[in-house]
What we know:
It is globular and about 55 Å long. The chain folds into two domains: 8-17 and 255-363, Alpha-Beta Complex (Aspartate Aminotransferase, domain 1); 22-252, 3-Layer(aba) Sandwich (Aspartate Aminotransferase, domain 2). By secondary structure, it is α/β, with parallel strands linked by helices. The strands form three sheets. Strands 2-8-7-6-5-3-4 form a seven-stranded mixed beta sheet, with helices on both faces. A three-stranded antiparallel beta sheet has the order 9-12-11, covered by helices on one side. The chain contains 15 helices and twelve strands. It has helices spanning 22-35, 43-47, 50-63, 74-85, 100-109, 121-129, 153-163, 185-188, 217-223, 227-230, 237-252, 255-273, 293-305, 327-343, 357-363; strands spanning 8-9, 67-71, 91-95, 112-116, 136-141, 166-170, 197-201, 211-215, 285-289, 308-309, 311-313, 316-320.
Amino acid sequence: MLDGRPVLLLCSNNALGLADHPRVCQAAADAAMRWGVGAGSARSVAGTMTLHRRLEDRLASFHDTGAALLFGSGYLAAAGVIPALAGRGDVVFADALNHPALVDGATLSGADVFVYDHADPEHLTWGLRQHPGRAGLIATESVFSAYGGVAPLAEIVAAAQRHDVRILVDESHALGALGPGGRGAVAEAGLEDGVDVLVGSLGTALGAYGGYAACDRASAHRLTAARTFASSTAPPPPAVAGALEALELLAEQPRRIAKLMANADVLRTELAREGYEVSGSSTHIVFLVFAAAADAQRVAQLALEEGVHVALDGACLRLAVMAAHTRSELREAAQVLGRAALRCGVRPGTLVPVTDAHALGEVVPLHARRAA
């Protein structure tokens, strides 16, 4: 409901529809009654409860890593892990379309930052060659929240191994969507042994709140020095319990993942029929890129007037599919967006292809700096 009227939600990260699942809600309610609404302290002081340890153990098992560390949010995890792993004199190699949390983490680290062209292993390799002998960390999303594309992880891992640098992969939008059991894009590619740290969010497919880093035990111990871990209140017990129950549901009901991806295929097919360019995404996140921000804003407004709620980002519309959507709802949403484009005078062929990284870069600001 938006302002008292029903709309189809196409801008939520609650991809598997678990945020309001009865079992998840009940687990959160029970935890609130037993453990309280908030943890009351930072993890390193008095905020670590049995519940936090249980979820960390469950996440470590889920990702088949030696350990996992909970943070207050996905943003705090991504922004805090990089400064804990890299500092002055080191180099962070960052994808040009990384999530702002990774960008901020690279900036806060004090390391030199080399921003390589989006999803371009050749440019990354060139950058690695420019900094021989220096400690380095490659930071990338697996599924890019900006538009739903998947990083070339095999090539990135190969480059990291050739140049002896570490890799951090943010799996926040791959969790619950890709890989065996929804374990993410790294697991789907069979590259678990090639990645040093996985970062994830509990607020996307798991429908809860919080973030985590999954890695070996030695790295997890090092990450406890991250300021966003040591100086932030621990995740609230209801959210932690909800995430634990969501992980159980994910294991019990793998059909949710299949339904999510099937729904994404339906939306892309229907949008293509309406003249939209959607080839840049292969996941549940679909970005529609327009030639001008005014066009995107007008299409979003007209779609909302017809009951379809999408996210506006500059000259882009970000559509996020959920497993809870029906095929008929997605077909109707695509038709609404098609009518809105026609009413705005935007016709097939005038849309900027989302696969054009340079065009996408023009509408998605890069808050990062290239190394001199």
